């Protein structure tokens, strides 16, 4: 389920900030040597809560930190961070079928951090052995 949610987030970010326009997106780590030549997003899972509800139903909330690193010089960096922040706050309301909740944006040390939550429910389905067909013959 986590990979499906991360893929939905990736798809939404790719639609908002296409790689063709020079943006990159990394999941959890930035590969060595690929950090400064173009602007990039770094998606981090920061927290997960998971609790059992009725019967086989479970509720989970995932908390993410989406960091945006600009490749512009310091004078233009702030404008770029604020432009990306505005786009994310206004347009990043859903990722696939998942709703983005509790969005918050903060710029620290020349990096934009947008934090948000995604909640979902799931039901565990246990596969039972199906009954076999019984043929009944009656002779009266």
Question: What does the model show?
Answer:
- The chain has 140 residues and is of the alpha+beta class.
- It has a single domain (2-123), classed as 2-Layer Sandwich (STM4215-like).
- It has helices at residues 2-16, 74-91; strands at residues 24-27, 40-52, 57-69, 94-95, 98-99, 101-108, 111-123.
- The strands form two sheets. A five-stranded mixed beta sheet has the order 1-2-3-7-6, covered by helices on one side.
- The longest helix is centred in the middle third of the chain and has 18 residues, at 74-91.
- The model has no long low-confidence stretch (mean pLDDT 89).
Low-confidence sequence ranges:
none
Class from secondary-structure proportions: alpha+beta
Q: Please tally the helical runs, counting DSSP H or I stretches of 4 or more residues.
A: 2
The gyration radius over C-alpha positions equals 22 Å
Q: Tell me the CATH topology.
A: STM4215-like
Helix content: 10-25%
Biggest pleated-sheet summary: 5 strands, mixed
End-to-end separation: 57 Å
CATH architecture grouping: 2-Layer Sandwich
Q: What is the C-level CATH assignment?
A: Alpha Beta
* Spatial strand order of the main sheet: 1-2-3-7-6
Q: Which series of helices and strands comes N to C?
A: HEEEHEEEE
How many structural domains can be distinguished in the coordinates?
A: 1
| Global morphology | elongated
Share of residues in strands: 35-45%
What is the number of beta strands? 7
**Arithmetic mean of pLDDT:** 89
Provide a short characterization of the protein structure.
The protein has 140 residues and is an alpha+beta fold.
């Amino acid at each position: 389920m986590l990979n499906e949610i991360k893929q939905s987030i990736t798809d939404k970010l790719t639609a908002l900030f296409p790689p063709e326009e020079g943006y990159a997106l990394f999941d959890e780590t930035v590969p060595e040597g690929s950090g400064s030549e173009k602007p990039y997003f770094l998606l981090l899972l920061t927290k997960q809560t998971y609790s059992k509800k009725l019967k086989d139903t479970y509720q989970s909330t995932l908390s993410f930190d989406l960091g945006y690193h600009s490749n512009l010089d310091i004078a233009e960096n702030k404008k770029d961070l604020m432009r990306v922040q505005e786009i994310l706050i206004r347009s990043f309301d859903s990722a696939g079928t998942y709703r983005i909740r509790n969005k918050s944006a903060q710029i620290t040390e020349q990096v934009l951090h947008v934090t948000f939550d995604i909640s979902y429910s799931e039901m565990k389905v246990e596969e039972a052995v199906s009954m076999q067909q019984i043929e009944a013959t009656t002779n009266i």
